[in-house]
Specification:
Mean pLDDT: 94
Low-confidence stretches: none
CATH topology of the largest domain: Alpha-D-Glucose-1,6-Bisphosphate, Chain A, domain 3
Radius of gyration: 22 Å
Largest sheet: 8 strands, mixed
Number of strands: 22
CATH superfamily of the largest domain: Alpha-D-Glucose-1,6-Bisphosphate, subunit A, domain 3
CATH architecture of the largest domain: 3-Layer(aba) Sandwich
Shape: globular
Helix content: 25-40%
Length: 471
């Protein structure tokens, strides 16, 4: 089967997942749950989905597979991934989310959740092993399931109503870029609950892949055009609403790691767990301890669990894409809300908007005060997996290879290989090459002293990747 686990969930072509693989992997998940003692036959397993054209078919396959394995499928419909995970945690039920997040519409995916949160890399291995054993076992029962859509969304919305003080966003005018994110209606509800003047923008009846980490030029054009309407901020999310997109009053998107840093400050976190791709200036902005990991929420969660075991206080995690996780409970407005150790776009959006409202500053002014190195990132799509593997093998092959490859960018002083190659240069800049974990894409991340230098460096890095040929 041409699908596999990536940085967050199972991913593959939609045409493949609409067939046997979605049934096989969902059955494998059920067998893993039972084998690990995490669920028994007859227990509920929740199913949610995003707004991709292929998602309803895949979700029906998942429901059929769950029923065939002797469990009780519960259909939560179209809703944010964090809302599904939260509902599962409340009901001590495993869950399955059909989503490809931000990747193109011809692809899709499945995220699996245990009753207490995301699966680990060890769980992925067990599920994959079960899928190999079940490769020819595609028979499945009917797709009838209990409907819990309204209840799951209501529970999630109530949780968000504990984040800020009443009326915290009164006086702010906020645009919501709705496109095809599953959060598009809940955004309106929660922002209006806090008193904001909310305007819906860009709702789409077809799926639009919005990447909050490498925001496309087209998306930036939309945001800057809408900014002329006098918004204090424009907010959005990726397809399944586990990654936030926050643009300032000029339509300029804030980087996800800056959004995460602001949220950590708002919550008063003691420990921040974040991947190596997040901005190197995070350590200098706060009194919290910073733990660096590989890219992907399973690695962030593993780091948070280590911090919890060491009793280090309030523990949070975030990624460069802005996905924010809480490992402990917090009560910034006096109302405690429980941990949600899966990526969530709502908490960081509310936190950043509140910090701006409380400070009386514009979002651009608030962001500038952190004085982070200017970071930029982009990716080359359609970059064959074999080609990216060959490039990384070449760069890791010797210091001479790496130095020669980057000769036009700067002199290498040091490097880290936690996830991809992050290279520190003698001019104080950094460049990071990393293949995508779930699509034929090659990513490049850079940091420099100003926007012009970062953009020039990014373009050069991408051109070097593009020019690489397999020998």
């Amino acid at each position: 089967m041409s699908i596999k686990f990536g940085t967050s969930g199972l991913r593959g072509l939609s045409v493949d997942l609409m067939g046997a693989p979605s049934i096989i992997y969902t059955k494998a998940f059920c067998h893993h749950l039972e084998e690990a003692g995490l669920a028994r036959k007859g227990d509920p397993i929740l199913v949610g989905q995003d707004l991709r054209e292929s998602s309803p078919t895949i979700a029906r396959n998942c429901i059929r597979a769950i029923r065939a394995c002797g469990f009780q499928p519960v259909d939560c419909g179209v809703l944010p991934t964090p809302a599904l995970a939260y509902h599962g945690m409340l009901n001590k039920a495993a869950s399955v989310m059909v989503t490809g997040s931000h990747i193109p519409g011809d692809r899709n995916g499945i995220k699996f959740y245990l009753p207490d949160g995301e699966i680990t890399k060890d769980d992925e291995i067990s599920i994959s092993n079960w899928a190999e054993r079940l490769d020819n076992s595609t028979g499945a029962d009917g797709a009838e399931a209990e409907d819990a859509h309204h209840l799951a969304c209501e529970n999630f919305l109530n949780r968000k109503k504990a984040v800020l003080p009443e009326g915290a966003l009164a006086g702010m005018k906020i645009g919501v870029y709705q496109h095809s994110t599953v959060a598009r209606d809940l955004f309106i509800d929660i922002l209006r609950h806090y008193g904001a003047d909310v305007v819906a923008l860009g709702r789409s009846s077809t799926f639009i892949p919005v990447d909050t980490e490498a925001v496309s030029e087209e998306t930036v054009r939309f945001l800057k055009d809408w900014a002329g309407q006098g918004f204090d901020a424009i907010v959005s999310a990726d397809g399944d609403a586990d990654r936030p997109l926050v643009a300032d009053e000029t339509g300029n998107p804030l980087r996800g790691d800056l959004v995460g840093l602001m949220t950590a400050e708002f919550l008063g976190a003691d420990v921040v767990v974040t991947p190596v791709t997040s901005n190197s200036g995070i350590e200098k902005n706060g009194t919290f301890e910073v733990i660096r990991t590989r890219v992907g929420s399973p690695y962030v969660i593993a780091g948070m669990l280590e911090a919890l075991a060491a009793n280090k206080g309030g523990v949070i995690g975030f990624e460069a894409n802005g996905g924010f996780l809480t490992a402990t409970s917090f009560a910034p407005a006096g109302k405690e809300f429980s941990a949600l150790p899966t990526r969530d776009c709502f908490l960081p959006i509310l936190s950043v908007l509140y910090l701006a409202a409380k400070s009386g500053k514009t979002l651009s002014g608030l962001a500038e005060a952190y004085r982070l190195p200017v970071a930029n990132a982009d990716r080359i799509q359609g970059y064959a997996l074999e080609r990216s593997a060959a490039l990384m093998e070449h760069l890791r092959g010797s210091d001479a290879n790496l130095s020669s490859f980057l000769a036009e960018v700067g002199q290498v002083t040091s490097k880290t290989d936690i996830d991809g190659l992050r290279v520190f240069l003698d001019n104080g800049r950094t460049i990071h090459f990393r293949p995508s974990g779930n699509a034929p894409e090659m990513r490049c991340y850079v940091e420099a002293e100003d926007e012009d230098a970062a953009l020039a460096m990014l373009r050069k890095g991408l051109s070097l990747i593009e020019a690489f040929t397999i020998v």
